[in-house]
Amino acid sequence: MLTAEEWQILLLSLKVSAVAMAAALPVAFALAWVLARWRFPGKVLLDALVHLPLVLPPVVTGWLLLIAFGTNAPIGRFLSDWLGLTFIFRWTGAALAAAVMALPLMVRAMRLSIEAVDRRLESAARTLGAGRWRTFASVTLPLAMPGVLAGLVLGLARSIGEFGATITFASNIPGETQTLPLAIYSALQMPGSEWQVTRLAILSILVSVAALVASEWLARRSGQGAARHAL
Amino acid sequence: MPFDVEIALQRGKLKLDYAFRTEKGGLTALFGPSGAGKTSLLDAIAGLARPCEGRILVEDTVLFDKAGRIDLRPEQRRCGYVFQDLRLFPHRSVRENLIYGWRLAPAEQRWMDLDTALGFLGIGHLLDRRPATLSGGEAQRVAIGRALLSGPRFLLMDEPLASVDAERREEILTVIERIRDELALPILYVSHDRAEVDRLADRVIAIEAPRAISQAK
């Protein structure tokens, strides 16, 4: 059904989104936690910084990523020297761009759900003998879980569709950084490729629908699971 | 000595002083008008609020001592706290609520098992329900059971009749009397209801309305 090229594009897109979500999830949750629970000077600033990719033109975010993670940039050099991790012109760069673009949406959803957790329930758990971690794992996290999953769904949707920051930061290289949206864009540039564009667009729609269905299933399963999961 | 408390709590610009000791176990009522800081006092004893000075001893164990820099964490205090707002875990069944603290307690600290608690409180038929589906009286008994099962050395009860409708009052009163008479457990019982206190309490400690500390600043 799919050509070898289309398979490559599809698998790359899925890989980029999956890695982006795996990387963004803990970061987003930590940021949501800090913004929901901590009080410190400069909190407004951190909040604004987290939201920046949401309001900036994606091209600007891509450019900022170039400045920060380029081969000669401080962070980029550190990561390549110590971890052998490079981003420019590589699929890891596409994943990083997708993660950064998805982060604000994830943090927002998770923060709201953490703020909604009744802290009196946490103190009840403490008097019943649960330490901080146990309280977090058995009370706070399960109660915040719907928001965490909602954040993951939003982030996933955003990362699958990511275009501007990716093409700016990681470029548009077939087989390396050319995800579905970038491939559609490239096909649009070539005269006489309407059929190819159509196929890719349908593929893109199918991927999005599948992701939504999967996340719905996940949310429902975790909703029920919370009841059966004792400690 | 079951309770030996001498602390000061800061609440906004108010400084609340408490000092009392009880020589024997049984049920000690903390009686006073609302706003006197009775719940703050229970929170301090449970470790949920930190006094600005003083010390708290329960059954000759130091739970808090400002001078000695002792401040046990809530989970180390082995206190069975029945909250006024109950605080049952909404995402867990009644059974899971009941055994939450029981599971966390080391075996040698448990002194009641689930079956005993179910019989004692008459809540065996509620096990698979969610807290949201319970009546006020049922939820109150589950909250009491959850506290007892955690293997506490003492009980803090904050207005346990507040969320119970009139017909169920007697039921809960009887349960509390049985806890007082059958379990050798010191109880601190907060109430603003004179009749309730007269019926239940072995002794009464009056909590006065807070005095303002220096208003300077």
Automatic annotation (TrEMBL), chain B:
Pfam family, any one: ABC_tran
Top-rank taxon: Bacteria
Keyword Nucleotide-binding on this protein? Answer: yes
Q: Key word ATP-binding present in the record?
A: yes
Q: Which InterPro entries match?
A: AAA+_ATPase, ABC_transporter-like_ATP-bd, ABC_transporter-like_CS, Molybdenum_import_ModC, P-loop_NTPase
Q: Where are the transmembrane segments?
A: none
- ABC transporter domain mapped to chain residues: 1-216
Q: By its UniProt entry, which PROSITE patterns does this protein fall under? A: ABC_TRANSPORTER_1 (PS00211), ABC_TRANSPORTER_2 (PS50893)
Q: Which keywords has UniProt assigned to this entry?
A: ATP-binding, Nucleotide-binding
From the Swiss-Prot or TrEMBL record, what is one GO molecular function term? ATP binding
This one is known as Molybdenum ABC transporter ATP-binding protein
